[in-house]
Structures are given as C-alpha cells and as structure tokens.
Design brief:
Blueprint (H helix, E strand, L loop, with lengths): L1 H10 L1 H5 L15 E2 L2 E4 L2 E5 L7 E9 L8 E4 L5 E2 L2 E4 L10 E10 L1 H4 L6 E11 L2 E4 L8
Parallel strand pairs: 1-9
Antiparallel strand pairs: 2-3, 3-7, 4-5, 4-8, 6-7, 8-9, 9-10
Length: 144
C-alpha cells in the first residue's frame, strides 16, 4: 500500500500540466504564419496560402515601433479573403507612401468551427513601403 501511495501524485500529473488527454493531443494552437505583402494600386494585399473559407475576424495595423495601446485595430473588419489574398483598401486603413509597418490578423473558418474548436489562423507581416512597392523586413516577435 505504501508503494502505491508514492505513485498517486504521478497519476494527476497530466491534469496539473494542462495537457489534455485523448484525441486533442494533435490540435495545439499553431504559431503565427507569415504573410507575403504586396501593393496593388492603393491597396496593401496579404497573400493567404490555403484560403479555404477563412475570413478575417481581427486585424491590427501600425507603423513599426508604435506602442500597443496606440495601434489601430478592428474586430470583424469589413474585409474578405478572395482568390487567396486579403486586400486593405484606403477606406479601411490609409497607408502613407513610405515607411515601415507591422500587421497582425486572425482568420476564422466557419466550416472548421463545426468540427473543431481550433478554427482560426493568425498571420504576422512586417514590411516597408518604398518606391511604390512593399518589401518584407525582419522584426522581433515582440513587435507584433
């Protein structure tokens, strides 16, 4: 009986670690994906690989090094993913002609919501607008 009592705490270890048991072991939150950015006329467009039925539910845009409290964001923006890209027109957010920017957005799938709780994808992008083009730049993860 004494030897069994020594092993009882190990039985509760999965509960204490926050690790769910069963078929959800492969359904963890995924890290943010990186979006490729390009300018199309006066719009900034983000390429979305494997778009399926994903649509934006949150977007945050700002010049680089803007404090979090001062960043522009919108829940359920009036944007959509069409033909594998999501474009931000000037009526939603007006980008200046030049500068460095960071963008984070979350897409959700109504179809996947029917079968799993993990129905969202998050994207991060850092880019510089220069000479009429959007060029990817390197930033630290904490800048998003």
């Amino acid at each position: 009986m004494k030897t069994c009592a020594k092993f009882i705490p190990f039985l509760f270890l999965p509960l204490l670690s926050g690790c769910p048991m069963g078929d959800r072991l492969d359904q963890r939150y995924k890290p943010a994906e990186t979006a490729v950015v390009e300018l199309k006329g006066d719009q900034v467009c983000f390429d979305i690989p494997g778009p399926e039925d994903y649509q934006p539910v949150f977007i945050k845009l700002s010049p680089r090094n803007t404090p979090n409290k001062e960043r522009w964001y919108q829940q359920y923006p009036r944007l959509s993913v069409k033909n594998g890209e999501m474009c931000v027109p000037p009526r939603v957010y007006k980008f200046p002609d030049k500068g460095q920017f960071v963008a984070s957005f979350t897409l959700a799938s109504k179809d996947k919501a029917k079968t799993t709780e993990f129905n969202t994808r998050r994207f991060d992008a850092a880019f510089e607008i220069k000479e009429g083009r959007a060029i990817a730049i390197q930033v630290d993860k904490n800048e998003f």
